[in-house]
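Sample entry (116 residues):
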Amino acid sequence: MNCIKEFFAQTFADLTTAELLDIRGLGDNPLTAGQLSGLYSIVNYRYENMLPTTTHTDKNFSELCKAIESPGHEVMAYAIVGRLWEMGVEHSKRVFSVTYEAQGFKSGLAVARGAL
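Predicted structure, serialized as tokens:
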């Protein structure tokens, strides 16, 4: 049992302290309550410590919330997407316009805190 706790503790540490965390596939499948809780802990830690985090999706804010929520945990899904959205919209508008619009892409949700 200690090996499992150590594994999860190390994985959490790796995800929260990585130089850049690139979240792929968010919104491809609904998440369980436990997955939502773990993801919120990681995203919130990175938000509070101003660590660069990116995620890419073709979904808008509401669609992404609906795509990851699990029954009874809608608020947690909105909290996660809200944190990601805050990091991206408030801190990297120029990255959106230079990186995505200049290349002719629709940006969707892209988060790159501290990229400027």
